[in-house]
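Issue 218. Parser rejects a valid record. Input:
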Amino acid sequence: MELNPNHPVSQAIHNQWHKLAALLMVKLEADHVVITAGDIAKLSHGIGIQVEEKPDGLHISIIEMAKAVELAYREGGLPS
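Output the parser choked on:
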């Protein structure tokens, strides 16, 4: 679920998951990754992903969902 779909960074990476996954695999020197149902279940327990565009590149971070909601409110993604 995107908390801030109208943010320019969200719009820029929307539907680009395959490129991000490939880039992460290249950076981690992995040519094959297995994602299990258990891996996906871990994400349903209050974990969010923050994507920030900075001068040196795209920063992707795992953050607490409460922080993700706070950022979305601050950046205008969720109504106050």
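Fixed in the parser; the record now loads. The radius of gyration is 14 Å.
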